[in-house]
Design a protein that fits this description.
Length: 92
């Protein structure tokens, strides 16, 4: 692979990692409730003020956050490589 491909791949990977970190933080912040109806299981408070089990909430949050991070990383990498190529062509 050439340098541009490596840069786009690296920026996409960094975006996916940041998306995963965002998902971990979101689940930690939203899943703090413990009630007597679900002993020992953490419940998460959703946007609509519903309490759902942590496993179900995680299955909603993780995929969307990671895919969003990957998409933004790919976009950022492609735009930066495009800008760099444009600057190189103007110098020549």
């Amino acid at each position: 692979m050439d340098g541009e491909s490596w840069f786009i791949t690296l920026s996409t990977a960094i975006g996916g990692f940041l998306g995963w970190q965002n998902a971990v933080q979101t689940v930690k912040e939203d899943c703090t409730f413990e009630t007597f109806e679900w002993p020992g299981e953490l419940l998460c408070l959703t946007i609509t003020n519903d309490l759902i089990p942590r496993a179900e909430y995680s299955s909603w949050i993780y995929p969307s956050s990671i895919l969003t991070g990957l998409a933004f990383g790919l976009l950022a990498g492609a735009l930066l490589v495009g800008a760099w190529k444009l600057l190189q062509s103007q110098k020549a």
